[in-house]
Design brief:
heterodimer; A: mainly alpha; MetI-like fold; 2 domains; 2 strands; 71% helix; globular; B: mainly alpha; 15 helices
Chain lengths: 314, 277
């Protein structure tokens, strides 16, 4: 049978060859089309990803202002950044605080919402739809909305506090530590993407598991903490990673609320990067870019290890 | 005993969900409602309703922030780059999903790994490229940059879509002598509508909302996009809150409309953009 099919194929091939004297076989023709289809993506990968990334790493070891020739200076940019840039210490300290909050409060809150939505509460769909809205607004616009929230005269925050403390008047964006709290409040409770990812994992849990647990007398709390949460390990890990990455690149939410102030109290790494580009310190700017990239990779590796995200759950 | 604790936990649940709704909806409603107030009404208290629908804010925003120009810019840039992305990434995702060729896995991994590099980190080299092409401060520059921006997510979503289309269709077409191009355009592409809509909405929202590259690559009004423009005019609005709030409302409106229409796609695309990691 197999032989017969093989013979048939050979016959067919010879027939085809006789019919048209092709210069290219069907497969070769396809291969050309395949590469034509890939070409635009490959070109944009080379021009907007690979080459920029190579430039990023290479130029971080150079002194480069765009006007004078690029000079190789070894690790000097890194040494300047780590030891002689006070703003870098502030930005890293802020990042540590944000990452700590992101991995705990932010992720826990969005997971809690996922657990609630999983219980199919009245109006759950409505909550899901509304919770998404802050995510589709431009971060720049969102930052500006919060800027008005914190205003002394027209703002919401001071007005609400004045219901309880009549004389309350704090310039939230212009003094520490209020400025830092103001920045954190622009993102800490907004985690709809994380909620939806965890919810997806919750929905995938086979109902038999819950039935079996209930027969064994498990309470709702036990089912949540012993079955549901451990089974959502991977999505919670993903959620953490997303949140941490968002902190590394946080810029607009700060720029349009505190402008990084007071002084440099609420600076993030993108502030240093952007400032260096504006001062034509391209090598130095790209050093910051490399640090941002490496921090993201480190977060990925650590979360992979801690949450065992590469191992299968079931 | 069990019932009362159950009731308490339900009450807490609804309180938390209510909190979520308030913090998500209130900021936007506040801005929209305030945009119809007069300046003195805004100054008299943030929770009052406008006494009459004053359109002064919108008139100011339309003129001072030059909305006719920046709306046009933003729409051209966002729509054009979304369309370009969809074309180039659907072509690539299709062959990656449906054909075997040398280097396929390496190529796909490289494309998806680009996700690890924050887009901000690439800004200086890309600025240099834009300068070298003499495209600084043009809409073309932003279209170029934006149309490559969603590469990893787009390929991930579209590859999945094309893989889920049964190969039998393409096989049947091949037996009937349908060529490579027709197999793609007439058989596979029409079946990939869902994936295209999902990545299309994600791309459009991303392009519409993008601020950082717009700030770095443009300066003239004639090439400014909405998010960048409204922040630039913050100072000029300092004595007109309704103007600023109207400008913010106008800036958010297209994204809100897209969300209202493509709600499911937006949810799906945001989840997809998270999972690829």
């Amino acid at each position: 049978m197999v032989r017969a099919v093989g013979d048939l194929k050979i016959k067919l091939a010879t027939v085809q060859n006789k019919m048209k004297p092709p210069t290219l076989t069907y497969k070769q023709k396809n291969l050309i089309w395949i590469w034509i289809f890939l070409l635009p993506t490959v070109v944009s990968f080379l021009a907007f990803y690979l080459w920029p990334i190579i430039t990023l790493f290479y130029s971080s070891f150079t002194k480069w202002d765009g006007a004078n020739p690029q000079v190789f200076i070894g690790f000097k940019n890194y040494i300047t950044l780590f030891f002689n840039t006070p703003a870098f210490k502030v930005a890293m300290k802020n990042l540590a605080l944000w990452v700590g909050l992101a991995a705990t409060v932010h992720v826990a809150f969005s997971t809690l919402i996922a657990l609630y939505l999983y219980r199919k509460p009245f109006g759950g769909r409505f909550v899901r739809i509304i919770y998404m809205v802050p995510n589709i607004i431009a971060p720049a616009a969102w930052g500006m909305i919060y800027y008005f929230f914190y205003q002394q005269d027209i703002g919401i925050v001071n007005t609400v506090i004045r219901w309880f403390i009549p004389d309350y008047a704090v310039p939230w964006l212009y003094q520490s530590p209020n400025a830092m709290i103001a920045v954190i409040l622009t993102w800490i409770f907004y985690g709809v993407v994380g909620s939806l990812i965890v919810l997806g994992d919750l929905m995938a849990i086979p109902p038999e598991l819950h039935e079996a647990a209930r027969i064994d007398g498990a309470s709702d709390w036990q089912i949540t903490t012993r079955i549901n949460l451990p089974l959502c390990r991977i999505s919670i890990g993903t959620n953490m990673l997303l949140s941490i990455n968002a902190r590394i690149i946080m810029y607009e939410l700060i720029l349009f609320t505190t402008k990084g102030g007071p002084q440099t109290d609420t600076w993030s790494l993108p502030f240093i990067l952007t400032g260096a580009i504006r001062n034509n310190q391209f090598g130095f700017a790209n050093t910051v870019g490399v640090v941002m990239f490496l921090l993201g990779v480190a977060a990925l590796l650590i979360i992979n290890k801690v949450m065992r995200t590469s191992e299968s759950v079931y | 005993m069990k019932n009362s604790s159950n009731l308490a936990s339900r009450i807490i649940m609804y309180l938390v969900l209510g909190f979520v709704v308030i913090i998500s909806a209130f900021p936007i409603i506040w801005i929209i409602v305030s945009s119809f107030k007069t300046n003195s009404e805004i100054l008299s208290g943030p929770f009052t309703l406008p006494s009459s629908f004053s359109l002064d804010g919108y008139i100011k925003a339309w003129q001072i922030a030059q909305f006719p120009i920046i709306y046009k810019n933003s729409f051209i840039i966002a729509i054009l780059s979304t369309a370009i992305s969809l074309v180039i990434f659907s072509l690539a995702a299709y062959v990656i999903a449906k054909y075997n060729f040398k280097g396929k896995n390496v190529l796909y991994s490289l494309f998806v790994l680009t996700l690890l590099v924050p887009s901000m980190a690439r800004v200086q080299p890309i600025m240099r490229l834009i300068f070298a092409l003499h495209l600084y401060d043009t809409k073309t520059a932003l279209v170029l940059v934006y149309s490559t921006m969603g590469m990893a997510t787009c390929l991930f979503v579209l590859r999945g879509t094309f893989m889920s289309i049964p190969t039998e269709f393409s096989e049947a077409a091949r037996v009937e002598g349908t060529g490579f191009l027709r197999t793609f355009f007439l058989i596979n592409l029409p079946l990939a509508k869902t994936g295209m809509a999902t990545s299309g909405t994600l791309l459009f929202l991303g392009n519409w909302n993008e601020y950082y590259y717009a700030m770095m690559l443009t300066s003239k009004v004639s090439s400014r996009t909405v998010p960048f423009a409204i922040t630039m005019f913050n100072g000029q609005f300092s004595f007109s809150y309704p103007g600023m709030f109207a400008a913010l409302t106008l800036a958010m409106l297209p994204a809100l409309v897209v969300y209202a229409i493509f709600q499911e796609q937006v949810a799906a695309s945001l989840v997809a953009s998270g999972i690829k990691g």
